[in-house]
Design goal:
Radius of gyration: 13 Å
Distance between the termini: 22 Å
Order of helices and strands: EEEEEHEEEH
CATH class: Alpha Beta
CATH topology: Gyrase A, domain 2
Number of domains: 1
Helix content: 10-25%
Strand order of the largest sheet: 1-8-5-4
Largest sheet: 4 strands, antiparallel
């Protein structure tokens, strides 16, 4: 797993086991141990690439309906290390510094190529290889 980190107060993600499973394909998942939320392609609003910074980052903007799940999970796991997966593959293991109450977060990596790749996968909203 790459050593990616989240940026600023949006420094981590979380999940709640009590939320129902989704029928749509999972694009993103965020978890702390057994607590996890799954985010389907239709819940992704946009991605923003920020490459002209000291450390390149990708801002992930989610549907407002994701905010309660994200807030509940992150509020329960402040200070812990979580895991972000894209299309089932681990991409980041951030330490959560504060609860995330807005439906957005950022992933940073010194490798701009990795950030571009994540942006392409998320923008395609499809985990099919070669999509």
């Amino acid at each position: 797993m790459r050593g990616l980190s989240l940026v600023g107060t949006l420094a981590a993600l979380a999940s709640v086991v009590a939320w129902p499973a989704r029928a749509e394909a999972v694009l993103l998942s965020i978890g702390f141990g057994a607590d996890r939320i799954e985010i389907a392609a239709d819940e992704l609003r946009a991605v923003e690439l920020h490459l002209n910074e000291l450390v390149p980052r990708l801002v992930v903007l989610l549907d407002d309906a994701v905010a309660p799940r994200l807030s509940a999970l992150t509020g329960a796991h402040v200070g812990q290390v979580g895991e972000i997966r894209v299309c089932g593959q681990p991409v980041s293991a951030p330490r959560l510094r504060a609860a995330i109450t807005a439906p957005s977060f950022a992933i940073s990596d010194p490798d701009a190529g990795e950030i571009r790749h994540l942006a392409a996968v998320l923008s395609a909203r499809d985990c099919t290889p070669g999509a």
